[in-house]
Structures are given as structure tokens and as C-alpha cells.
């Protein structure tokens, strides 16, 4: 710690103490609060150091909360083709969405079920074949990435009738998947306060372009209120409690 006051040619303290050559006594010229200065600065430093990564995640990372974030992928895989034109269900590849917190991205083997025969010679599929031969998984770049202090769970949503489309948009029209919704706290809470505005029947969670009236003849608010009852959606106090998402 710096002690520049010790070298002050004109000390402010009582002359008796100032005249003394004893450093130990001179230290008493610091006001009493100075004793707390170092611990206080230490605490502040620790605080800043622990908070920095958090700030970094929140403010600096381009992957967080940026609608439109669409990283380049190692394979030119198109959702518009597979989920759109070919009409494959999301769960064919994202097999775990109904059972676990995490929505698994398919292993290479899933692709080769078809691509061992379809477009088997395509250059675009070269990295897929290489991955299968070497056993090295394809390094897909994560599009969505919640900060670690937020708890999110896919199965909890999908099983209560929240559609993929509500949070991810028209994936069936995306050549490359990008983040479609803000995914920030205000956005989560908007639905947690009034889930009836968004709920759909469970068998329609992976449907794209779904509309309550077209599908059931009921308005979204009427159907949503009904489903909220049927699925026993938890009460607003639980849904908006801090510990539901920060645990
Ligand atoms: C043929 C397999 C397949 C099907 C069918 C499929 N996906 Fe995917 N999905 C992938 C692969 C591979 C990735 C990783 C590469 C990428 O991001 O494009 C992915 C990535 C995603 C991501 C981005 C994940 C991240 O990194 O944050 C979302 C969201 C997604 N899929 C949603 C859907 C939805 C919704 C459907 C149904 C409409 C669907 N997928 C159908 C294979 C598939
Ligand atoms: C159910 C079968 C099926 C599965 C599973 C499947 N695909 Fe496809 N894929 C197709 C079909 C059909 C086409 C279109 C072929 C055509 O244009 O004639 C295609 C086209 C492609 C193309 C474009 C190839 C080209 O040369 O134009 C790529 C790249 C591709 N798929 C990647 C993947 C990846 C990566 C996976 C695994 C995540 C995957 N596919 C899983 C059926 C499938
Ligand atoms: C309530 C909103 C919501 C719904 C509904 C939802 N997702 Fe997600 N999805 C998210 C969020 C938020 C993330 C980022 C999670 C993270 O980074 O921890 C994510 C991430 C993903 C990922 C990347 C892997 C992962 O789990 O981080 C895939 C793939 C995905 N979603 C597919 C789907 C599919 C397919 C469906 C429908 C069956 C679906 N999602 C429904 C919000 C949702
Ligand atoms: C479109 C509506 C909607 C959006 C958007 C949404 N949620 Fe939910 N969330 C729900 C519903 C419905 C439930 C189910 C409550 C129940 O179990 O009855 C739920 C439940 C949860 C749970 C409780 C899971 C459990 O196992 O206890 C967590 C945690 C959660 N959501 C986090 C989030 C986060 C974080 C976001 C934003 C990234 C988010 N949700 C966005 C509708 C939504
Ligand atoms: C429905 C889920 C959900 C609930 C409930 C929730 N949060 Fe959050 N919170 C989030 C998400 C998601 C983020 C990620 C921040 C972002 O990307 O905007 C976040 C971020 C934060 C942050 C970081 C600063 C910021 O604003 O980005 C603080 C602090 C915070 N929440 C406090 C709280 C408190 C206090 C409560 C209770 C009153 C609460 N949260 C309830 C989902 C939730």
C-alpha cells in the first residue's frame, strides 16, 4: 500500500508527533477511517473482478440477446429444405426436447441415415462423411446461448404447449438458423405473466405457421385460457418468482 503522506514536508498533525523520526508513530497521522481503506478497496477489486465476466456475458458477447445472430456453420445444412420442403418434424433430429432441458442437436449418424444414399457424392456433405469416418462430431456453432445464471428448460415448455415457433420463429423458412426473439428477461416474463396468449395444443408444438383460429375455430385467448387449465400451468407468482429462472 502506498504511504505518500509520510514524505509530506509539512505534516498537519500535532508538532510532537510530526517531529518524531519514528515511522510507527507517524502512521498515527492517518485518520482512523484509513484503516478501512485497504480492505474496502480489496473488496471492491474482488467485486469488480467477479462481476467482469458477468458483464462480459451480458454486454459484450455477440451471441447473447442479439436478434438476427446467425453464425456460419461447418455444413451448409438448411432447415428450409429439411424442415420446410421435406416437412421433417423437429423431433426427428432434436430428439430430446420433450424429455430434457437441452434440445439435442443430431449426431452425424442421423444425417447419414439418408445421406448414405441421397446425394452421397455431394461436396456439401463431405464434412459429414468425414465426421462419420473419423468419429469426430461436427462442430456446429451454437446460435442461442443463455448466460449461465439463467435456468432454462425445453421439456417444461414443450410439454405445456409452448411451440418451438413461439420462441424460435419460422425455422422452416430459414436456410441458416438465426436468433429470432430477444430471449431477454423482459421477453420471458411477458409470457410468464400471461401464458394463455401463446399456448397451443401439445400435438401442435412443432407445427410452423400455426394459428389458433385456423386450427381449432377458437380465438387464441379462449383456447389459451382453456389449455392453461387443462395443462395445470403454474400460477403467476411461481412463474414470475426470481428463483424460477435464477437458481
Ligand atoms: C434433419 C435434422 C433437423 C431437423 C428436421 C430440424 N433441425 Fe434444427 N438443427 C439441426 C442441426 C444439424 C442444427 C445445428 C446446425 C444449425 O444451427 O443449423 C440445428 C439447429 C437448430 C437450432 C439452433 C440451435 C442453436 O444452436 O441454438 C434451432 C433453434 C433449431 N434447430 C430448431 C429446429 C426446429 C424448430 C425444427 C422443426 C421446425 C428443426 N430444428 C428441425 C437439425 C435439424
Ligand atoms: C430424412 C432424410 C434426410 C435426413 C435425415 C437428412 N437429410 Fe439432408 N437432404 C435430404 C434430401 C432429400 C435432400 C435434397 C436432395 C436433393 O436436392 O436432391 C438433402 C439435402 C442436403 C444437403 C444439400 C446437398 C446438396 O448437394 O445439395 C445438405 C448439405 C444436407 N442435406 C445436410 C444434411 C445434414 C447435415 C443432415 C443431418 C443433420 C441431414 N442432411 C439429414 C434428406 C435428408
Ligand atoms: C419458451 C421458449 C422456447 C421454446 C418453446 C423452444 N425453445 Fe429452443 N431454445 C430456447 C432458448 C432460450 C434456448 C437457449 C438455451 C440456452 O442457451 O441454454 C434454446 C435453444 C435451442 C437449441 C440449442 C440447444 C440448446 O438446448 O441450447 C435447439 C436445438 C432448440 N432450442 C430447438 C428447439 C425446438 C426443436 C423446439 C420445439 C420442440 C424448441 N427449441 C422450443 C427457447 C425455446
Ligand atoms: C411463450 C411463453 C413462454 C416464454 C416466452 C417463456 N416461458 Fe418459461 N414457461 C412457460 C410455461 C407455459 C411454463 C410451464 C409452467 C408449468 O410447468 O406449468 C414455463 C416454465 C418455465 C420454467 C419452470 C421450469 C421448471 O421445470 O420448473 C422456467 C425455469 C422457465 N419457464 C424459464 C423461462 C426462461 C428463462 C424464458 C426466457 C428465455 C422463458 N421461460 C420463456 C412459458 C414461457
Ligand atoms: C422467466 C424467467 C425469469 C424470471 C422469473 C426472472 N428472471 Fe432475471 N433474467 C432472466 C433472463 C433470461 C436474464 C438474462 C438477461 C438478458 O439476456 O436480458 C435475466 C437477467 C437478470 C439479471 C442480470 C441483469 C440484466 O437485467 O440483464 C438480474 C440482476 C436479474 N435477472 C434479476 C432478477 C430478479 C431480481 C428477478 C425476480 C424479481 C428475476 N430476475 C426474475 C430471466 C428471468
What general outline do the C-alpha atoms trace?
Answer: flat
What would the average pLDDT be, to the nearest integer? 85
Kindly name the structural category: mainly alpha
What composes the largest sheet? none
Provide the gyration radius in Å: 29 Å
Low-confidence stretches: 1-6, 13-25
Strand content: under 5%
Q: What are the bound molecules?
A: heme C
Percentage of residues assigned to helices:
40-55%
Number of strands: 0
**If helices are DSSP runs of H or I spanning 4 or more residues, what is the number of helices?**
14
What is the CA-CA span between the terminal residues?
39 Å
- Could you give the order of the helices and strands? HHHHHHHHHHHHHH
Overview of this protein structure:
By secondary structure, this protein is an all-alpha fold. The chain has helices spanning 15-19, 23-26, 37-60, 79-85, 90-93, 108-115, 126-134, 154-158, 164-168, 185-193, 212-216, 220-230, 236-240, 242-245. The two termini are 39 Å apart. The longest helix has 24 residues, at 37-60. Helix 6 (108-115) packs across helix 7. Among the domains are: 29-60; 79-105 and 140-245, no CATH class. Helices cover 43% and strands 0% of the residues. The protein has 14 helices and no strands. One heme C (HEC) binds at residues 150-153, 156-157, 160, 162, 166-167, 183, 188, 191-192, 195, 198, 233-234, 244-245.
